[in-house]
Predict the structure of MexH family multidrug efflux RND transporter periplasmic adaptor subunit.
Amino acid sequence: MRTIMLVAGIIVALVLGKLFIFSKPGEGKDSDAKKGGDGKSARSSGGAVPVNVFIVGKESIENQIFASGTVLPNEEVNLMSEISGRLVKLDIKEGAYINKGQLIAKINDRELRAQLQKIAYNQDLSKKIEARQRKLLNVEAINLEEYDVTSNNIRVLDAEKEVIEAQLEKTEIRAPFSGRIGLKFISEGAFLAPGTPIVTIVQSNPVKIDFTVPEKYSPSIRVGGTVKFNLDGDPSTFSAKILAVDPKVDENLRTLRVRALANNPEGRFVPGMFVKVLADLDANRAAMMIPTEAIVPVLKGKKVFVVKEGKAQEVMVTTGLRTDKRIQIIDGLKPGDSLITSGIIAIKPNAAVKVKL
């Protein structure tokens, strides 16, 4: 009897468990089944990455480039001796201003002047002989050949005189242009050989400013344009006019050399100084500028992420000018694109994203 009651109790317990315990999970599943795709949609929405976006548009930007430059003299020359001789006069003061054509040095010319005097005596004699022979030729007392020899001697002496006069000019070393005398290399009384340096003359008003720019800016650099520059440690800004552009790009550095001219009446710019050059190029009226934090460097270049149909799409871009907060996009994006600017590290291509308002 007890056994029958025990079995009956177990059966009752199983039935109650079936009705009140095991039916609840089923009911939950039925509830979810009734919701259908709504449950799946909720889970999907919960996995989207929240991001900030930047709407790409066109704007006007000033095109400026900075470059390092060097101050060069307008003219500079090392005066040297053209002939051999003893230096008998050195009429210069180091650092002084000198005018064009002013005598700087004099080489002993005593021997050359003696040769010139000898030629002068021979010329005088040859002219007298030529005059007498002309009279004799008129009465046919001499033949024409003798007269031609005398006439030729006169012409030869004239040529020898020009040679000696040219050598005499070389004994006087004069300033080829106005400027300041540098430090002298030799003293009075020294014997000079051809090519011996004597002194340097520097013309520093105006001065030249030489600088280089990347080759991609070469179409925007024009002769006659104006650049600004600053001296190192001096906040003042000065201007210079572009004088010339090198017709060849440096094939090693891929840069273009530019030369500008600046007035220097007070001698403030000393040749050899370092300057910082600012060149204003043509303004870009339709530039696409985006935040720099949106750029992701990759092995093949640079990429960004844009939002399309609720997903992050990877786009390779080509960049141009850069400021402290923005960078120009030359290719890859178009106006109206929704550019992702936050959470970029955690984003993968085709990942679901949610734009934060």
User: Anything to note?
Assistant: The longest strand covers residues 197-214.
